[in-house]
Amino acid sequence: MLGYRKFARHAHIETKRLRFFIDRGWISPQVIDGHPVFRDVDMARANLVADLTNELGINDEGVDVVLELLDQLYGLRLAFGTLIDALEVQPQRIKRHVVNDAQKLKALTYRRSRGGGAAL
């Protein structure tokens, strides 16, 4: 179990910066018996934030936006996976109906975007 100092050292950031990451909501370690428990996802996010700020020069507000978009994308992936799982257990006729409707929607969206109108 890594404490603040050890985690910060492994993430190559100062402890003060780590606390800023936590305060900002960029990293959310679990707290067990009053002690932080950092997971692999916390290290990945710390590394991502370091890359965004140090390598790409993105400011803190930009990091907020990037992480929010990534979190939304991850949430959509989970929701889409759940939808696919639910669809797989449906009868073949229902699957065909869903695929046909999706293809119609895709074609409609494509036509609208090509015609200069707003896409769905």
What does this structure look like?
With 120 residues, the protein is mainly alpha-helical. It has two domains: 4-89, Multidrug-efflux Transporter Regulator, Chain: A, Domain 2; 90-120. The chain has five helices and two strands. The protein has helices at 4-11, 15-24, 40-55, 60-88, 92-114; strands at residues 30-32, 35-37. Strands 1-2 form a two-stranded antiparallel sheet. A hairpin with a 2-residue loop joins strand 1 (30-32) and strand 2 (35-37). The chain is elongated and about 55 Å long. The termini are far apart.
Level-1 CATH class name of the largest domain = Mainly Alpha
- Terminal CA distance reads 47 Å
Q: How many DSSP H or I helices?
A: 5
- The overall pLDDT, averaged over residues, is 89
So what's the overall shape? elongated
State the helical fraction: over 70%
Main sheet: which strands, in order across?
A: 1-2
Number-wise, the strands total 2
Beta strand %: 5-15%
Poorly predicted runs:
none
CATH A-level architecture of the largest domain:
Orthogonal Bundle
Q: Per CATH, what is the topology of the largest domain?
A: Multidrug-efflux Transporter Regulator, Chain: A, Domain 2
User: How are helices and strands ordered from N to C?
Assistant: HHEEHHH
Strand-pairing-aware structural class: mainly alpha
